[in-house]
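Quick one:
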Amino acid sequence: METIIRETLISNQTDSTDCSFPEKTCTIERLVRHPRLVEAALRGDKTEQRRDGVYAYPGETFMLDNVLFACTGLSRERLGDMRDADAKAEGYSGLDAYRDLILRMHKGMQWDNDALVWVHRFTRSDAGQTNR
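Output:
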């Protein structure tokens, strides 16, 4: 049985100055950019974004098409530990679709099961609220 490495540093923390996170490599505004993925997040089909670096800390907020989202978790995980459910949380139909797209987007890249990525988890901040 494969051992799953999940180094969850902090989940649902609101203090973005925690020293256990490395410095950001990019701004939170660049976390979710592709229009199809923005639409998936707005529908609630996308709740995770894997990146090579840190773009957001738990507790930080960002806007997608004038809708507020909040980063709820940040963890370091192996690509090889991804499952279909993780790919679906990324907004894809399954792991094969996710892997194929990533390899097409990053020419020359090979899928390395041991590669570590930062998993940003987020929720739509107005989820569950109704307009009056």
